[in-house]
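User: Before I run my own analysis I want an independent prediction to cross-check against. Here's the chain; please return only the structure tokens and, at the end, one sentence I can use as a sanity check.
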Amino acid sequence: MEYRKFGRLDWRASVLGFGCMRLPTLDGTPQSDKVDREATVRMLRTAIDRGVNYVDTAYPYHNGASEAAVGQALRDGYRAKVRLATKSPDRLH
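Assistant: Structure tokens:
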């Protein structure tokens, strides 16, 4: 994995990040709130094990289910291996 300096921080970001806007779903619908958590955990942990250290999610992704799935994947010490970015909507619908 290649890494680049991240602004003024004493941290180097992997050139490949893991975006969680389109996680695998149980019903095959791209933005479904039925996230396939088993597949998500497997995918995200594999990426981290191979050097990805930047994960991006947001509350609106998968109708609120993305953050919970990412949280599950980052258990067991994986949270300490990444920088996690999340965004809040300007308003909740």
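Sanity check: The chain has a mean pLDDT of 94.
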